[in-house]
User: What shape does this take?
Amino acid sequence: MLNALTRKSQLDHMSKFEYDLLIIGGGITGAGIALDASKRGLNVALVEMQDFSQGTSSRSTKLIHGGLRYLKQMQVNVVKETGRERAIVYENGPHVTTPEWMLLPFHKGGTFGEFTTSLGLKVYDSLAGVDKNERRNMLTKKEVIERVPNIKTDGLKGGGHYVEYKTDDARLTIEVMKKAAAYGADAVNYVKADGFLYENGIVTGISAKDMLSGDVYQIKSKAVVNASGPWVDEVRGNDVAAKQQTKKHLVHTKGVHIVFKQEDFPLTQAVYFDTKDDGRMIFAIPRAGKTYVGTTDTFYGEDKSNPTAEAEDKAYLIDAINFMFPTLNADVSMIESSWAGIRPLIQSSGSKNASDISRKDEIWHSTSGLITIAGGKLTGYRHMAEEIVDDVADYLKKHFKMNVKKVSTIDEPVSGGDVGGSVGYQNYVENISRKAPSYGLTLEEGFHLAMKYGSNVETVYQYAGITNDNHEKYELPKLLYAEVIYGMLHEMVIKPSDFFVRRSGKLYFEINDVLNYRKGVEQLLQDTLSYDDNARQQYAEELDAAIQDTKR
Ligand code: FAD
Assistant: This one.
């Protein structure tokens, strides 16, 4: 279990054990590898130097998407694979992934014309094996305007209507991590791998620092995978062999999203649209009573832990919005919050524009045994994990004569995903919501929790049911109190920002909850996890900084 209360004893245990596989990095890539490997029966450890998903995996466009952009580049196999994976991710976790009809408008002189949109989406449907009821349809100009009344009508010819999948990237990551933990993986947040252990030049584990206490541990493992996303080169830099062999490197680009209140940017239909004049396309997506827009794609060389939306990023997106939604007269003062993420991309020669660099993933092997995964997308995490664990299995066979059987994760629900698949999900939610009143919650609250936690919801209900009015002591609604307790005991929530930013997404989409309830949550976390006032003060300042960053 990802239990914050037993984190310290878990770390002590980890330093006394030899694992089959140790993973550096707790983003979606590391989580996916942990799940695949632990399901194969391997003893797995995972360390994450920040909070789970705090790197790129909480800062994406939050789409499990097919490869429309790859179709444009004629990468037929990539389209097929992302289409297939998209359906698998949805089926295994309908509570974290929802279909979202996307509108692709076409204007005179735009990226896509009527013919190319119609044909492209049709080819896409067939390559990606899209379900009959989710296949594209073409809209007339009038139908486009009906759906998006504030869209640019000048030169508008019509639109393509097709399905993408919306996700909560941070929650998808934690649900995959929880499933890996259910299979026995030991995963801890706030633990940094800051060196390797060797025997005869072969990596046999890591030296790790607990970023909360400063304690240093040695964790031994037969195989070590570097899944540190944008930090892949830094981690390889600690391995002498990988450093010497390195031919390829990462290059980083930043992607920014901005969030509006629906009053300021009314939108009920997601739109994928052309920017003004650089040939890029961006998304505007309605979510939780807000509209978010992104992304940018610019080279980035600064602090990877804390990318923020700068004035020029916002200006670019505002320009794009005003180009496609001219009646909005959007300006930066309307931006309610924002986030920025760093793409870890593999450097390729001749790419002058950030957007031209391939989004492909690659696996690099060092003679020290270190296996590094570079690049990749949220969407393809499951398949990517399978490939890496295949390599790990080969390594364990060659060096330790271990026979690791391949198992499929295609039908493996993520944690909370035992809801009868995509078909049974709505029924499941409706039925289970009816139980909420017996725990002192309203039907509506029960519904909200069931949508978010899927088949784990009854555990959350139970925490609501046994508060003994404790929530009143912290001046928290019962629902929020139960979520924080669940977060601590099942999702390793330690700091207020773990909860407000990554487990609930409230920082971006429900900022008033953060402002109204942060004191109660800070107190509840401190009381339950018994940290001192200095730590509480530091974590409160980190939340202050996160709030400021979204408003910069
Ligand atoms: P990360 O999530 O960054 O995880 C790596 C982790 O390693 C980090 O949490 C870091 O703290 C940790 N780490 C680093 N060094 C150490 C160390 N020494 N010890 C311990 N831990 C360490 N993909 C999609 O499929 N759909 C999208 O809509 C989409 N949109 C995107 C939009 C943007 C703006 C960006 C930037 C990316 C987007 N992507 C999208 C891509 C996707 O988000 C990333 O490919 C994916 O999240 C990468 O996951 P990861 O686990 O490899 O890296």
